[in-house]
Design a protein that fits this description.
heterodimer, A: 308 residues, alpha/beta, 2 domains, six-stranded mixed β-sheet, four-stranded antiparallel β-sheet, 10 helices, 14 strands, 33% helix, elongated, B: 259 residues, 0% strand, globular
């Protein structure tokens, strides 16, 4: 099946001359959770704003389920729900009024039962008559999500959804994202909290200085770029690493009690089994052994460091 | 293609309804305060000072100023309603939703300008009713009166919409009404006939577009005007067309909305 969002050759140069996006090419698959990672100012929000119709692109084309965002903007935008980063709501409207307004704005006939369900799912039903201005920050965030879901979008953009959000809301939000995905909704989230991408995403794209640096499945990314670390607790401290182990590039802790071996899947370094054999042969004994996978965060940091 | 399929009428309706709801929520500010200030004008100019002024064109001074006063409120309220309606979501950022919705520029304009114009027309009629409590009113051409009311409300709501998009601060938002519209209205014959002016000032005044609005509107009441009705109508329509052209340009370029 063709991708649900297809971005090709998209650039954005602001009037100030600042190039926010340089030739972005990106395809989002139907029904996936895609995490767009990048440091602040990398172009994440600009890219989302272009797809959603908030900012004009300088060049390039974007299609949403085959609809060009310029020529067929009605069809394209009808499919998209957007939860922006900032809490921006008309403060004087009631929760009920503002969510129904959003639904009407997207051309959908009134459906009080559906809107009620959205509000209940987001624990907002008790607040339906409250004015937005009286809501707490977390509740406002829920309201923004309710507005985005009010017109039953097939694609949901969450721009930095958990910035400044408490644990409870964060968990509710992830539960909601999973439910939506089960219903076939495609979800694109931007974040600079990498644990989030790690926990949720099927695929990850990294954007830096207006360029897509890499796009890959999360599992593949972890496998390809991830590293493993083997830590050995030694029975007796070593003064130094014996010459014969130079090919392993081991690290010795300052107290001499711990040996660390870092390896990855593409590595030409020999495997763990041969290291352990060699250690036994050299009479180096250990009392404990531990392995660690590097997180997406470390991968991300490494990637940006290479870029710089 | 029928209209329902070609246009997102639901969006137009919900925006319009929300704009009207805001007016009723702030009823004190949007309705009562103009009524009070208009009543004060009548008390001061109509009764206190007006009783010492002779009739103008055979009309008592109190009655003479009614069309001008309505126009004064109509212009300022149309501009402030429409400019605030579009500036406020821009200011708080909630405009993202409007821009990301499947709504055309035409629909946005119809909804916002329609809402602003409706409010100021209602206000104009309320002022008219208030005025009838103070002075004997007589409307010679009621259909033309309504036509001028609607045409002016729509034109200046469009103008306000443009200001709302252009403005980058609340100060700029107030600037045009304060520095341009209010003086033009006061000097446009709200409180006097421009025929009372010395020749040179009368000629200068003819460059003031508001003169034509007030003159035409006053004609619909009393059948007398400073300039001919045809010219009044023509000037109003010209101004309307200029506003439409500017709005079209704003939308074609995404000026201060999508850039």
């Amino acid at each position: 099946m063709p991708s649900i969002i297809s971005i090709s050759g998209v650039t954005k140069t602001y009037a100030t001359g600042f190039k926010a996006l340089k030739e972005i090419n990106l395809d989002i698959e139907r029904g996936e959770i895609f995490a767009l990672l990048g440091p602040n100012g990398a172009g994440k929000t600009t890219l989302i704003s272009i797809v959603c119709g908030i900012v004009n692109r300088s060049s390039g084309t974007v299609t949403v389920d085959g609809n060009d965002i310029g020529r067929d903007y009605r069809a394209a935008r009808s499919l998209i729900g957007l939860v922006p980063q900032e809490l921006t709501i008309d403060a004087f409207e009631s929760v009920w009024a503002t969510v129904n307004y959003s639904r009407g704005l997207f051309g959908k006939p009134a459906n009080p039962a559906f809107v009620e369900k959205v509000l209940r799912d987001l624990s907002l039903w008790d607040k339906k008559d409250a004015k937005a201005i009286t809501l707490s920050g977390g509740m406002k965030r829920r309201l923004m999500i309710a507005k985005a879901l009010s017109h039953e979008p097939r694609i949901l953009f969450l721009d930095e959804p958990t910035a400044g959000v408490d644990v409870e809301l964060r968990q509710d939000m992830w539960a909601m994202v999973r439910r939506l995905r089960e219903d076939g909704v495609t979800i694109i989230l931007t974040t600079h909290y990498i644990e989030e991408a790690e926990a949720m995403a099927d695929r990850v794209g990294v954007i830096n200085r207006g360029e897509i640096v890499l796009v890959d499945g999360k599992a593949e990314l972890m496998r390809k770029l991830g590293r493993k670390r083997l830590v050995l607790e030694l029975r007796a401290p070593l003064a130094s690493i014996p010459e014969t182990f130079s090919r392993y590039a081991l690290e010795l802790s300052p107290d001499g009690g711990q040996l660390t071996y870092t390896y990855d899947n593409q590595s030409e370094r020999p495997g763990v089994a041969s290291l352990i054999r060699d250690l036994e042969a050299a009479g180096i004994q250990f009392r404990d052994i531990d392995t660690q996978n590097s997180s997406l965060e470390e991968i991300f940091v490494n990637l940006l460091r290479q870029e710089a | 293609m029928n209209l329902r399929a070609a246009m997102n009428l639901r969006a137009v309706w919900v925006i319009y309804r929300m704009e009207m709801a805001r007016a009723f929520r702030t009823v004190l500010q949007s309705i009562i305060s103009p009524v009070i200030s208009t009543s004060l004008y009548f008390v001061v100019f109509g009764s206190a000072i007006g009783s010492r002024i002779t009739e103008i064109d055979g009309i008592s001074y109190g009655a003479f100023i009614v069309p001008g006063l309505i126009m004064l409120s109509l212009l300022t309220q149309s501009i402030s309603n429409a400019s605030f309606a579009i500036y406020f979501p821009k200011f708080v950022g909630s405009i993202y939703e409007l821009l990301s919705a499947p709504v055309s520029y035409l629909e946005i304009v119809i909804a916002y300008v329609g809402g602003a114009a409706t409010k100021s027309i209602i206000l104009g009629l309320i002022i008219l009713a208030t005025a009838s409590l103070f002075v004997p009113l007589h409307i010679e051409h009621p259909v033309w009166m309504l036509a001028f009311l609607v045409l002016t409300a729509v034109t200046f709501s469009l103008f306000g919409f443009i200001i709302g998009i252009w403005a980058k601060s609340f100060e700029q938002l107030q600037l045009v009404p304060l520095l341009i519209i209010t003086p033009l209205t006061f000097l446009g014959g709200s409180f006097y006939s421009i025929n009372m002016l010395p020749d040179i000032w009368r000629t200068v005044t003819l460059f003031n577009p508001v003169v034509y609005l007030i003159s035409g509107f006053r004609w619909s009441f009393y059948g007398k005007s400073d300039v001919s009705v045809g010219i009044s109508l023509g000037m109003t329509v010209v101004f309307l067309l200029i506003c439409i052209a500017i709005v079209a340009w704003i939308f074609r370029t995404g000026y201060r909305l999508r850039n």
